[in-house]
TrEMBL record:
Protein name: Zinc-type alcohol dehydrogenase-like protein
GO terms for MF: oxidoreductase activity; zinc ion binding
Enoyl reductase (ER) domain mapped to chain residues: 11-334
Keyword Cell membrane: no
Keywords: Metal-binding, NADP, Oxidoreductase, Zinc
PANTHER family recorded: QUINONE OXIDOREDUCTASE
Species assigned in the record: Acinetobacter beijerinckii CIP 110307
Protein's UniProt keywords contain Metal-binding: yes
CDD domains per record: AL_MDR (cd08252)
InterPro entries named among the record's database cross-references: ADH-like_N, ADH_Zn_typ-1, ER, GroES-like_sf, NAD(P)-bd_dom_sf, Zinc-ADH_QOR/CCCR
Alphabetized NCBIfam families for the sequence: adh_fam_1
Similarity comment: family membership: Belongs to the zinc-containing alcohol dehydrogenase family. Quinone oxidoreductase subfamily.
Length: 337
């Protein structure tokens, strides 16, 4: 048996049944799976969305959590890139049990070796957001490492988890001018420290602020949050033949606004590769190893902003409440059972 935090019926975070401390059967490793003893986790908006909307049968438990650092305890018969005792980091798969448990099964093809220079709490802040940011920038938007001089990108929501790593990847791996949005003095300072060249206030019209900078119109726009509120602004400010990407879930998305400029629109969902067992699943392992190297080389820093301990229902409820408030800076991490 193992400790876990789970639930059965979709609910608000204020419900007594929202998240519960339980004990469940330990999983059995097979195939490409690693059995990982979880040391630290971080909490993401996807955790709150699943908790609010997905229920399971009364005799089942739903374990959330899609960011983890841990140590490999056992490997399946098909595993070839890891061994027992390896320190690993990963974001897991949406259609499997999550990391809010002492032991977790995860396919080796979406797992990387943990950065050696970070402890478990520091590293746990990065996997899901690093995969999301990397895939959006280099797989979806196809941002070049060396672009034409004065090519600009706008990152909406730069102080959040995904925005925080997006800015760092852009700063270290490309020559783009980085425009970020932030609304509070502390978050403006945060995105500047991460590498943003310019900071806009997303509570004010963005197109007008872009014009005042006297820069080239952004060829790339990455919206991490509140896309529905900014869509008309994005259509106005983006360069003709530009590339627009989003990761949130607007109720409606009228992309006709982009027709006159021939703008391409891209969704990024970092669970696609694991959910559909795509032929290139291994790319997530590869990019996590690349990010780990960037961390160990001192080019990327952790985005953890708060650490809670231990991993239990009480602390996870606190983390969910903070994320649902929409005012988080960086990542919330939980450590140890």
């Amino acid at each position: 048996m193992m400790k876990a935090v789970a639930y059965q019926q979709a609910n608000t975070i204020t419900s007594k049944q929202a998240l519960i401390d339980i004990e469940i059967q330990s999983p059995i490793v097979q195939g490409y799976d690693l059995l990982v003893r979880v040391q630290a986790i971080s909490v993401n908006p996807v955790d709150t969305k699943i908790r609010k909307h997905v229920s399971v049968e009364h005799d089942q438990w739903k374990v959330l959590g899609w960011d983890a650092v841990g140590i490999v305890e056992a490997i399946g018969e098909n595993v070839c890139n890891f061994k027992v005792g390896d320190e690993v980091w990963y974001a897991g798969a949406l259609n499997r049990q999550g990391s809010n448990s002492e032991l977790q099964l995860v396919d080796e093809r979406i797992v990387g070796h943990k950065p050696q220079s970070l402890n478990a709490e520091q590293a746990a802040a990065l996997p899901l957001t690093a995969i999301t940011a990397w895939e959006m920038l280099f797989d979806r938007l196809q941002v070049p490492k060396v672009a034409a001089e004065n090519t600009t990108i706008l990152v909406i929501g730069g102080a959040g988890g995904v925005g925080s790593i997006t800015i760092q990847l852009l700063k270290q791996l490309t020559n783009l001018k980085i425009i970020s949005t932030a609304s509070r003095s502390e978050t403006k300072t945060w995105v500047e420290q991460l590498g943003a060249d310019y900071v806009l206030d997303h509570r004010q019209p963005l197109a007008k602020q872009i014009k005042q900078l006297n820069l080239n119109a952004p060829k790339y726009v990455f919206s991490t949050t509140q896309t529905d509120q900014h869509l008309a602004d994005i259509a106005e400010l983006i360069a003709p033949q530009g590339h627009f990407g989003l990761i949130d879930d607007p109720e409606q998305l009228d992309i006709k606004l982009f027709k006159s400029k021939s703008v391409s629109v891209h969704w990024e969902f970092m669970f696609t590769r694991s959910m559909f067992q795509t032929m290139d699943m291994i790319k997530q392992s590869e990019l996590l190893n690349q990010v780990a190297q960037l961390v160990d080389d001192g080019q990327i820093k952790t985005t953890v902003n708060q650490v809670l301990s231990p991993i239990n229902a009480e602390n996870l409820i606190t983390a969910h409440q903070q994320i649902e408030s929409g005012s988080t800076k960086g990542k919330i991490v939980l450590h140890g059972f």
